Amino acid sequence: MAKLSIHTDEKKSKINRNIYGNFSEHLGRCIYNGIYVGENSDIPNVNGMRTDIVEALKAIKLPVLRWPGGCFADEYHWKDGIGPKETRKKMVNTHWGGVVEDNTFGTHEFLEFCRQVGCEPYINGNVGSGTVQEMSEWMEYMTFDGISPMADLRAKNGHAEPWKVKYFGVGNENWGCGGNMRPSYYADLYRRFQTYVRDYGDNHVFRIACGPGIADDYNWTEEVMRIAGNYMNGLSLHYYTVPGTWEKKTAATGFDTDMYYETVRKALHMEELITRHTEIMSHYDPEHKVGLIVDEWGTWYDVEPGTNPGFLYQQNTMRDAIVAAVTLNIFNAHSDRVVMANIAQLVNVLQSVILTEGEKMVLTPTYHVFDLYKHHHDATLLNSHLETEGVYAGVPNLTVSASEDENGVVHITLANISADTAYPIDCALTGKKYNTASARILTNSIGAYNDFDHPEDVKITDFDALTLENNNLHFNIPACAVMEITVS
Ligand code: AHR
């Protein structure tokens, strides 16, 4: 028996919907043969964007999408990706497989994709190999409404109207692939570059500085906040869950129970990272003016056998669903500081929500978690308490998050991490009186996944076996499960 209490009269921070964001890089089959198939493809598309993918992302209300990288961002020169497609410059994608990047998907195409999905664009600029002028002109090109060299060029390329672009990243992983910089050097460069990322008209840019990376680099946060904290709206954080080592990450499927728990244990390290980085941020920014933007997170395994090692294509199992569920519960719990997160990546790369093969598409277990959690978008976090036990080396058996939406409806997301044990749950709701409860569930064995021949082995079903009496919910959560419970 596990005891859960949801204090509906103890309201905490607003859960920014952008926590449920995603990331799309020019990497493997994320953009090409992923979201973008071109206007002449036999695969149904609108202006080259796959209709099935657009519809799937609308269904989970994808709020924000980061592009064009990743490491690719600090090699990307945006002017190569505008104008007539046949004359766009070709380049080598040195980071990701050494393939030819023909730039047929550029600024116009990305912003068109965001328009179709209904999400906010988050553009990541080039500090590592770019110039201040280039970055400055990109914002002018996208957002200036009037007569200017870049606005005129945009009109010449078929888009007279400016776009709205709020989120802009000034460099990516500049401690590594983005230029191997030291924090004080980057912080000064950040101050300089961001000066020329202008607000045009009512387009107010939310400027995001490169934060700490794969190591627990608290010194980076300290230095960048000290030197440049007053010049940013957000600081990024990247953390990947690698079950093995970077040299031998281990396979996405066919893992044993020990490896499963080890993966979840590593995913839960996000809690410590956020806590410690936000402590440093609070020292320089006690008023929480700077948001933490976890703009790369998720599992990273060995690529699927026979696929290009530079394409980072991996399957996605119930283990990934549990990683997503516990991580999103952590983000919700820290939503007083975490204002955006972008799982890596959208389609066919790392912990994707969607996989494609030709005209076929599957929704991964991770996609279904984003579906179960979508009612947290912009809702108010509620205080909750769980009496729980551990199942493995510090890994708890359950994690929870609860929020109240604008209509007073409570949504509880609960993950049972245990690979083999179901738990009876006794959940008390304090506060006002609730009359109805319903639930949806995603559950299967830890290694279950969807593929192109079995696209629905792992899917959400309705869960009717719960009762609500005198503000007490009773139900059994099966092993390896993620639930959404709605109470009103
Ligand atoms: O998401 C894959 C890569 O991981 C990104 O390009 C980079 O920023 C990170 O190291």
Shape: globular
Rounded to the nearest angstrom, the distance between the terminal CA atoms is 24 Å
Which ions and ligands are bound to the chains? Answer: alpha-L-arabinofuranose
Count the strands? 26
Q: Can you give the helix content as a percent range?
A: 10-25%
Structural class: alpha/beta
Largest sheet at a glance?
Answer: 10 strands, mixed
**Total helical segments:** 10
InterPro entries: Alpha-L-AF_C (IPR010720), ASD1_cat (IPR055235), GH (IPR017853), Glyco_hydro_b (IPR013780)
EC number: 3.2.1.55
Domain Alpha-L-arabinofuranosidase C-terminal: 295-481
Enzyme class: hydrolase
Walk me through the structure.
- Pathway: Glycan metabolism.
- It is a single chain.
- This protein is an alpha/beta fold and 488 residues long.
- The protein is 24% helix and 28% strand.
- The protein is built from 10 helices and 26 strands.
- The chain has helices spanning 51-59, 107-117, 132-143, 149-156, 183-195, 218-228, 257-267, 269-284, 318-333, 365-372; strands spanning 2-14, 21-23, 45-46, 49-50, 64-67, 91-93, 99-101, 120-125, 167-170, 206-209, 234-241, 291-299, 338-344, 354-357, 360-363, 380-387, 390-392, 395-396, 398-404, 410-416, 423-430, 437-443, 461-463, 466-469, 472-477, 481-487.
- The strands form 6 sheets. It has a 10-stranded mixed beta sheet, with helices on one face.
- A hairpin with a 2-residue loop joins strand 14 and strand 15.
- Helix 6 (218-228) runs parallel beside helix 8 and helix 9 (318-333) packs parallel to helix 10.
- It starts with a strand and ends with a strand.
- The mean pLDDT is 97.
- The site of alpha-L-arabinofuranose has 10 residues, from loops.
